[in-house]
Amino acid sequence: MRTLLHKRTRWGLALTALLALLSLYPAAGAPRVAAQAPPSDGLVCTTGPTFTLTARAGYIGTPDDNILYMWGLSAGSDPYQYPGPVLCVNQGDTVTVILHNTLSQDISLIFPGQTGVLANGQPAQPQFDGTGALTSLTNVAPANGGSVTYSFVASEPGTYLYQSGTNPAVQVRMGLFGALVVRPSLGAGYAYNRVDSAFNPANEYLVLLSDIDPYLSQAMETGQPFNMSNYHPRYWLINGRGFPDAIAPNFASWLPSQPYGALARIYPYDATLNPLPALARYINVGSEDHPFHPHGNNGLMIGRDGRALEGPAQQDLAFERYSFNMGPGQTADVLFRWYDAEAYAPNNPVPVTIPNFQNMMYGMFYSGSPYLGEQGTIPVGTTSENQCGEYYIIAHNHALYQLSSWGVLMTGPATYMRVDPPQPNNCP
After folding, report:
1. HSE-up of 324 (CA within 13 Å, CB side)?
2. Is 247 in a helix, a strand, or coil?
3. Quick one: CA torsion of 398, 248, 178, 324, rounded to 10 degrees?
4. Suppose 200 and one of 6, 88, 263, 276 were both cysteines; which one would form an S-S bond, judging by CB atoms 3.0 to 4.6 Å apart?
5. Which of the four pLDDT bands, split at 50, 70 and 90, describes residue 36?
6. pTM above 0.85, yes or no
7. Distance CA 295, CA 302 (A)
8. Digit-coded pLDDT (tens) for 89-133
9. Would you give the distance in Å from CA 183 to the centre of its chain?
10. Number of alpha carbons in the 13 Å side-chain half-sphere of residue 364
């Protein structure tokens, strides 16, 4: 197992990076094109409907300063990345995915939830060897340079997974997966073809949960056999990162192979200034259940596995949850807001006496004041990453043993929701 030769203090790097992370607040979900910088937080789309994906080997970093050999999919000739690009298309598009394979094993892609998938222009079919044993769930791109082209019509809006269909127990665990977003005919500001699925396109987020057994990674790197009955995750990730890397910006320079951050950034609900909720797109590509648990607010689950939660005549069956249990292979679409319910402020003070400095511990994100938009005095020698009196509310996997990196606590699938003061404000 390779280890990091020059260790970095990821806490310091990730926290310092918040200054750069929040210096710009562009609309999430914007296409990643050369003429436009990608959003520093939120969903990063690779727009279609035609995509070229290349399977490569590479390395990712973990919060315990380990480096793991992994596989992954990148767009065209782009460098290796984990996870694969977020493919964004519109309902009704004929989606084409050209898969190139540089790995030493045959690979393939399947698209759960999509129908009528073609491979090289013919219906995609399971593959068998000469003895009749199943070798792949669909047509393959042969090892060491092979290619295959898949196509299908994106008929239903929602959040989907794409993943390897060849030896998926190994290849998906090694990183051959990504997210597929199908936007409805109503437009980019809706999750489904329902007016009550409207969300703010500037507040669209990905929660992609995965896990890794480093012994599988080592076996694939060295060409050794691995008994998948012994697969045991030691790392659990969100968007390909563990905490605190998860709150670093998209395309953080010190995470060159892990492009997607997980920090959510919103304003308090306001019927005039901020009437629309945010949207979180949940996907579990791991081998275990992940009960993801946002603190501080409920979420409204409006869709599951690429289908709106509705009954006959579009009866609304959406429901609120405080925790979202995601089984392997499941997806969910969740709307959420943050309400300043008590509206505490210096002229409406909290009804408790705030302890003095000696009786408090100041976290890095505390502003020195309990009031949104206010910054108070902090003790000498205390470092604060708070920029403008914003709040930070944690969201994490509630299977607490998964909040670790090979035993290093609080380094797994966790992130923050950053609540900014209402506009106008002095936030970067």
Report:
1. 32
2. helix
3. 20
4. 276
5. low
6. yes
7. 19
8. 999 999 999 999 999 999 999 999 999 999 999 999 999 999 999
9. 17
10. 12
